[in-house]
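Could you help me review a protein record that somebody else here produced? My question to you is simply how this chain folds and whether the tokens agree. Thanks in advance; the entry in question is below:
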Amino acid sequence: MAQPAWLKKYLHFKPEVNNIFDGLEEYREFCVQFGHVFNEADLGNEYSPYAEMMRTKRGKYPRDNWGWLIKNTRMESRNA
């Protein structure tokens, strides 16, 4: 079924909405790459992995949770 022309005209996102979705996608990719838990509600929260992503954008080196997990797993196997 074809959609009417007026529906196509009004079903586009505003630039602000596009920026939010772009930020969410960037945040998700950061979480996957560095091993953080992805939660959409953390977008803009400075006490979450989102703040870690913002520090990375400013040129600081990010904390890598994958490396921390591997190191702690190795230490547990040595202590057992």
Observations:
- Helices lie at 5-10, 15-34, 49-57, 65-79.
